[in-house]
Design brief:
The chain is mainly β and 185 residues long. Helix content is 14%, strand content 37%. The protein is built from 3 helices and 11 strands; from the N terminus they run E-E-E-H-E-E-E-E-H-E-E-E-E-H. It has helices at 45-48, 97-109, 167-175; strands at residues 4-9, 17-24, 30-37, 55-62, 69-76, 81-85, 88-90, 112-115, 127-128, 137-146, 160-165. Strands 4, 7, 8, 9 and 10 form a 5-stranded mixed β-sheet that branches. The radius of gyration is 19 Å and the shape is elongated.
Length: 185
C-alpha cells in the first residue's frame, strides 16, 4: 500500500530543500509530513531509490609509529559554538566518496589524503543521516594523511583549526563532551 499521494518542493536552494509530503497514516488518514533533502524534486531518494552518498565523513590517521587522528575544531553557525569533529563534506557531481574525501581533507586541513580500500565494504557504504528528517546519505572514508597542516584552502565561511590528536587527547575531548557533542571550548 502506498503511504503518500504527492510530494511538493517548498524551497529552491542549491544546498538544502524543504519538501511536504501528502502522507497517509496507518488508519488511512491524510496528513502532512515534512522532510529536507540536498536533492531537487526529480532526484529525491523516494523517486530514484539511489543510495549515492551526498556527504562523507573522513576517519584519517597520520602515517607515524603512534598515529594521530585528524580532527577539526570548527565553528558551527546553527549552534554558535565550536565543535570537535572528523573532517567531512559533500560529494560533488560525479566524485566518488574517496575523491570527495581527498578534496575535503585538502580544503579543510591542507593535508593529502590516501584512501584505505581494505577491510569490509559494509563500513564504507552510504548510510542515512536521519531518515525521519532527511533522505541524505553519507559514507565513511578511511585512510591516512601526509603533508603539512595549512589553512590556505579553507573557505571564508569556515573557521577551522586542525587537531592531530593521539588516543589520550581524543579521550580527553570525549570526556569533556567536546567531541562529538556541542561544547563552547
Amino acid at each position: 500500500m502506498k503511504k503518500y499521494h504527492n510530494i511538493h518542493q517548498l524551497t529552491d536552494n542549491p544546498f538544502l530543500n524543504l519538501y511536504q509530503m501528502d502522507a497517509i497514516d496507518t488508519k488511512g488518514n491524510d496528513f502532512s509530513y515534512y522532510f529536507v533533502s540536498r536533492n531537487d524534486a526529480q532526484h529525491i531518494k523516494i523517486k530514484t531509490q539511489s543510495m549515492k552518498a551526498e556527504g562523507i565523513v573522513i576517519y584519517a590517521v597520520t602515517n607515524e609509529q603512534n598515529p594521530k587522528l585528524v580532527l577539526i575544531r570548527q565553528y558551527r553557525y546553527p549552534l554558535d559554538a565550536f565543535l570537535y569533529e572528523l573532517p567531512a563534506g559533500l560529494v560533488d557531481g560525479d566524485e566518488t566518496p574517496g575523491m570527495a574525501a581527498s578534496r575535503e581533507m585538502k580544503e579543510e586541513t591542507g593535508l593529502d589524503f590516501v584512501e584505505y580500500g581494505g577491510g569490509k565494504t559494509c563500513y564504507r557504504r552510504p548510510f542515512f543521516m536521519g531518515a525521519g528528517f532527511t533522505d541524505e546519505t553519507s559514507a565513511t572514508v578511511f585512510g591516512t594523511v601526509n603533508g603539512s597542516v595549512s589553512d590556505a584552502f579553507v573557505e571564508d565561511t569556515e573557521e577551522i583549526q586542525v587537531v592531530l590528536a593521539d588516543k589520550e587527547q581524543v579521550r580527553k575531548y570525549w570526556n569533556r563532551n567536546a567531541f562529538p557533542c556541542v561544547g563552547r571550548i
